[in-house]
Amino acid sequence: METVPKGEKAQDALKVRVWRGDAAGGEFREYAIPARENQTVLDVVTQIQREQEPDLAYRFACRVGMCGSCAMEVNGRARWTCRTHVKRVAAPGEALEIRPLANLPVIRDLATDMAPFFDKWARAKGTFQPKDAPDGAVPAEFATVPPESKARREADAGIECIGCGVCYASCDIVAWNPDYLGPAAMNRAWTLVNDVRDGARAERLEAVSGDAGCHSCHSTQSCTERCPKNLDPSSAIAGLKRTLFWDSLWGRLR
Amino acid sequence: MSAQAGRHLWVAQRVTAMFLGVAVLVHLVTIMVAVRGGLTAAEILARTQGATLWFAFYVAFALAAGLHGAIGLRNIAMEWLGWRGRGFDLAWLGIGLLTAAFGVRAAWGLYAN
Amino acid sequence: MRTDMRGRSHPTYIAFILHRVSGLLLALFLPLHFWALGQAIQGEAALEGFLRWADAPLFKAAEWGLVVLLALHLAGGLRVMALEFLGWRARQKDMVAVSAGLAFAAGVLFLLNVG
Predict the structure, then answer these.
(1) Hey, which chains touch C, using 3+ CB pairs under 8 Å?
(2) pTM reported for the whole predicted model
């Protein structure tokens, strides 16, 4: 299919295979756009939509790696497309292959339904439960959390998650067990387990245990490998297992 | 299976793993020593006959290995074949115990013959 | 099951696959091993007969495979438990390398001894 715009030489074209379809199924379609020295994968998708396929569905917002909405699978790996330069993922002359995130229902084209992903954050009790204000009110006193304490540092290590779903889409356990909570939800749970102000430790640990939780993680570390923020959900899940082990040994669980 | 039961299986998997880690090393070293200059029945039986410590070791080894293997097979079957549920769990428990029983029978042979 | 390996080629993923496949093979072999030994160990003569039968080169090769599988599975287990119980996050790739080395060493040692 020849879609190179007039005036562009063939060798200046970037070949792009984009998955088009919906929940019922779909297929790759090929496009060609001008290759530029500096272009991100999100630029490529935007160019295709603006110049060739106005009905191409995809999602983005901030374009600077903060909002976590533009993740897609690029040449076999889930990535944040706004901060991924084409030359980092495709050698000169190599085609780009862009498809929606795995492990999530497709709405249309490159847009997936993120609801199951965030539902699992809720199932993993990913909301802060203030210890001294169970009704959700603002506590009267500020809590003192020493920045150098072990718990604070553990929480810090996982707190910068932007909820892009890259880890979830990269996790084989999610693919094999649709009930599995996945890396992001358990990373969130681990930050809260280490939050000394939180009062829901036992319930949260209960929520993340068992076959659908941390005990099914096999430490393939695909999540850690792919996280665009360089977080380490795999270690967070290991932390949950370790905490559950010692807490149950000392009878600190229900 | 409840979340708690899943957690207990994980604990069983790790506790047996810790024991097996040591036991496998003992087993491998014994093999390395035993195969030096050929393996003979008299040699093996001289080491194991009436040796209560070796018998206890092999019984614990067989039990741990049987359980550890069955829990692992359960994980693989759930994830790669979609075999989930109470029926499968009971089947894996049975397979684990049967395997261990075969091991205990072999250990008894080494001890009592 | 997806088989696209482009996102599944990092060392810890390969370590997982090796750990799982070696574990699967060992778990399938284990009942056979126990049962055969139980059959063979019915007195010294029977055991001796079994051992001489087991001297066949094919059997020796299979035994070598088992020793390597066992070492591989053990080393892979050490990687997982180091992460789970000790929280060794930075050293995971080194652990993978150590695991491979351990399995290799066990294989060579067995070959040297059996020869």
Answers:
(1) A, B
(2) 0.91
